[in-house]
Amino acid sequence: MTTTPVISLRHVSKSFGATQALDNVSLEVSAGQMVALLGLSGSGKSTLLRTINGLHRPTSGEIRVLGTDVAAARRSELRMLRRQVGFVFQQFELVGRLTALENVLSGALGRVRGPRLGTMSYPLALRKEALARLERVGLADRAFQRAGTLSGGQQQRVAIARAMMQQPQILLADEPVASLDPETSDQVMDLMFSICQEQNITVVVCLHQVDLAMKWAERIIGLREGKLVLDVESAAVDKTQVMDTYRRVLDEASEPDPATGGEAPRDAEPVSTYSSARQAI
Amino acid sequence: MTTTLTETPAGAVTQQRVRPPITRLGVGLGILAVGALVLIVVSWRATGFGVGVLFSGLGEMWTFLRSTLPPHFSSADYSLGHMLGDVASTVSMAVLGTALAMVLSIPLGFLAARNTTPHPVVRAVARTIVTACRAVPDIIFALIFRDALGIGVLPGILALGLHSIGMLGRLYGDGIEQAPPGPRQAVMASGAGRLQTICASTVPFASPQILSNALYRLDINLRSSVVLGFVGAGGIGFTLQAAMNTLQFQLAIGIVLVMTVLILIMELLSALLRSALIGNDTVRTGRRWISFRKQSRSRGNTMPFDPGRVRPHWTGARVGKASIPYLVLVVLGLAWWDAQVPVSELLSSPGAIAHAVTQYFPPDFTTAGSLLRQGMWQSFVTAVMGTFVGGLIALVISFFAARNIANSWVYRVVRVLLVIGRSIPELIVAIMFVVAVGPGVLAGVFALIVGTIAFLAKLMSDNLEEANPGPRGAIRSTGAGAGQEVVAAVVPPALPGIVGNLLYMLDVNFRASALLGIVGAGGIGFLLAQTVQTFDYRTTGAIVTTTFVIVLLIEQLSNWARRALN
């Protein structure tokens, strides 16, 4: 495996008005790695993901994704980048009125010129490919059913097929299973990770559940109030350790500290067994 | 980029079809589309539509416009005070008519909504009453009441009130049906009774829409009240017609200017009120006029906790909301005082009204004979052409009037232009075109095109604005371009609404084209005006009956198409 990082952030900060969403975050992800981002709501996980594919621009700091300087990229360059980065959303974000197949096809918009409306406006080769991608997520028989009429798990599988239609090198997923029941969650996660493994796609996924993170990701990153507070290799630690660390993060975030007037301590050091583990390899 | 499928098992798939299957619904919609196309071609030929005629008529239009300048706001026997009085009674007519419609439509709406009606039969009856009110043009109601009660504002109020039920009752019913079932079940689960459940879960959901749609209807009624004056329902329209008949064009244009400004003011006021009532994004009414950005902040968090206080705090917003009912009462009171509604006369005259209605029955289809058929056909093709050409132009404009698509300055300018365009009464536009291209259907087509653009562009851009931003973000993150993004994620969810509004417009335009004939713009209106003037009631009855049937047919068709698309 090459050591060239496909994603690299250096001292990245992002603020929305007075809200500091990302605070001096630095990290690198190498090709083919499966990374889980853990953190409470509002800890900056979603912002981090959206900064990686250029939906948000950082306020300061440097981001390079697949060789593109996201902070400085022109719009057309960002679009080229987004074509190589798939994104899976918590609420699936399918166009409910369109068929499953057309939703998958919309993942290929970056590959065709001009606006498209209707399945038949896409070339035959793309239609075949889209159907194959639906087949891969086990929904080829639902190709012409409206996306809005599918169940949550099915919709997320269609969304994964849509992301795969981009032939991405990186897949970003924002709480992809938070709206699904545990059993469906497992299926969707399994599907997502196995497809990405087959095709050597780098994955960065935001999660709430430590269990799922431990089960699927090889590396776990924790965020709190926009800061990086945890970066470990999941194989190097066991579940309870991560749970403990995560709980500690939880406790510190939720319990107001009287000394700082209700604000959680700002000097928490990142628990970084990951970098040492990497050096050991 | 290479398109290899090797990474996905594609063997089974290549056998499968990659074009959408042909469904009965698809075939039905296809037939409808082909039928629409044929209809458009036929109408095109029948109306002889072309832009060339318009250009050759520009000279005459200009001469006519010159003769109206400078506008006069009074004349020898008509003082400015007189005009203000007329304006006041026109506004009163619109206000009282809308209030009447609202009072009658609320119960009808609840009876007509699937989730609140006591029985399906009641629902069907309520829906039929509503549809019947819509199918009879307000001008016909005005004629009936004028015959029974004499010239004055009262026939206008009743006509607006009854005809508006057609729209309000329908929108109320539909709005109530959209109430989410979840909260209802939750309230019911707590052991509440039927009426309690409706009051606790459905009414709060529906009430902003009820008020907002009534305000929207008030806009429309203010426009209509001018036209109603033409048939003797009082107000400024009556004076306007007199000025036109005596060739006092300068006074006529003065009256039109005053009305246009008044309608503009009313529209801005009602837009403000509605945005105060419902905000921009909380309720889908689809009937916003101009949109005012309103920041919704969660209030109450900042209030100090006071265990003894069990009433809401008097925040600015609450003062505003609480004052609305009083404001409405004051406006209604003023309108009532101004209109001098003779209640006793109204109560003692059901016999006269019944008599006035029976005059139109049984309808006489034979006397007018081919004139009736010809007029109906002319009105129909006029409506089709006006809707088609106007709709096309409106569709293009709507992209510039949608906040989520257009540049914010373009959006504002286009929206303001559309508001101004809507403020000019349709009948006036028709007169202008009659002067430019001569009497006949073509003038009607042009008048309808102008009206259609102003109305539909607004409705269509609202449809576009309603698109959920989530899927858009998803499409953008695939690296799609701006145009691709809009077509892939904004247009599909807006499409049923756009088609629905187009069909709604056809319905509106047919009724409008049936009236345009009054000013010489061709169609059944010409015959209608004649039969009214010669007191040929039973032929008038035949015209109304036929209009009624055609409106019902168009509506059935549009209902079916809308359901099919959804």
From TrEMBL, chain A:
Q: Which SUPFAM superfamilies match?
A: P-loop containing nucleoside triphosphate hydrolases
Origin: domain of life? Bacteria
Residue ranges annotated for the ABC transporter domain, each copy included: 7-250
| Region spans: Disordered | 252-281
- Keyword terms of this UniProt record: ATP-binding, Cell membrane, Membrane, Nucleotide-binding, Translocase, Transport
The terms under GO molecular function for this entry are: ATP binding
Q: Name one Pfam family in it.
A: ABC_tran
What protein is this chain from? Answer: Phosphonate ABC transporter ATP-binding protein
Give the organism the record lists: Streptomyces carpinensis
From TrEMBL, chain B:
Record-linked CDD domains: TM_PBP2
Record keywords: Cell membrane, Membrane, Transmembrane, Transmembrane helix, Transport
Q: Where in the cell is it found?
A: Cell membrane
Domain of life, per UniProt, equals Bacteria
Q: Entry's Gene3D superfamilies?
A: MetI-like
Q: Which family does it belong to?
A: Belongs to the binding-protein-dependent transport system permease family.
What name does UniProt use for this protein? Phosphonate ABC transporter, permease protein PhnE
What species is given as this protein's source?
Streptomyces carpinensis
